[in-house]
What does this fold into?
Amino acid sequence: MKLHVYDHCPFCVKARAIFGLKGLPVELVVMANDDAATPERMIGRKMAPILENEGQYTPESMDIVHMVDAMEGPRVLTGSTDPAVTRWIEEGSATLYRLAMPRWAAAPLAEFATPEARAYFTDNKERAIGPFAERMAETPELLASTNDSLLRLEPLVRSPDAVNGELSEDDIHLFAHLRAMSIVRGVSYPTAVDAYRRRMSERTGVPLHDDIAA
Ligand SMILES: N[C@@H](CCC(=O)N[C@@H](CS)C(=O)NCC(=O)O)C(=O)O
It folds into this structure.
């Protein structure tokens, strides 16, 4: 199986995560961000992640998660979900993207190997959230809001191995969110949240971006 992704992409992290949690091998293929032809050939539109399996192409991160969880061996996402976790993720999404997008655009990620690929991302995302320079200038307020919200997440984290104590879809969504956050320097992770994101990184095999955080 091959998984076509962008390294920065939180939806791709969801698809990558289930392979790690299941212990199933997958070949990761990072597409250039300005390469529309490859995804369009596979699924008819420019979108990642895409799972390639025996000549079949599956888009949509959670479809991939469910498909892979149902593959050989016992399912791993057996726990129940907590609406408070979903709510926490939703409430922080706009702030996260405002912090992360300008930083991804400047980061040494494989999908931005050429200046054209980097420019494609920048043009595309600045249309969504406005000029990156303005977003970077908002860093102090955005960081303060993020650090505040992490204090509200802390009591929801019951174990470093699973936010609700037993692995569930919440872990797929929450780890993808926290992994996206790892491109941001200066985030104050409360103890349980930090242990969780590190442990989930190990279990999923998806490295955090702490080392290139800006
Ligand atoms: N609903 C899709 C959303 C995937 C998505 O939005 N992927 C983004 C990257 S994070 C994408 O490919 N956008 C098009 C682009 O970057 O050109 C899923 O869950 O897989």
Q: What stands out?
A: The chain is about 55% helix and 5% strand. The longest helix spans residues 83-106. Residues 6, 9, 11, 46-49, 60-62, 124 surround glutathione (CB under 6 Å). The chain has a mean pLDDT of 98.
